[in-house]
Amino acid sequence: MAAVQYKKADWVAQADIQELADGKYQGVVMMSHELGATSEDVKHTVEAPSDSPEQALEQAVALAHRLLADIAR
To answer: Which residue, 45, 44, 48, 21, is CA-closest to 33?
Structure first.
């Protein structure tokens, strides 16, 4: 389950983190678009890994906000 979830219209952004093999963390955002009975899911990752899970989650939340803001454009 996602750590943080945001909704805009028929889009859902789920921000979370994943631990990397080297002990660092990376922010991840799963974007879901509801299309009637089906949905379209796209995974986005934060470019730079973080040293802490808190920092990775902050970066994932920021990415989720940017992705949702771009939908209106």
So the answer is: 44
Segment holding 30, helix H or strand E: strand 25-35
**Element at 44 (helix H, strand E):** strand 38-45
Q: Any idea what DSSP says for residue 2?
A: -
Q: What is the mean pLDDT of the chain?
A: 90
- Judged on CB neighbours under 10 Å (0-12, 13-18, 19+), 45 is middle
pLDDT band for position 34 (cuts 50, 70, 90): confident
- Per-residue burial over 24-36, b if 16 or more Cβ lie within 10 Å, else e, is bbbbbbbbbeeee
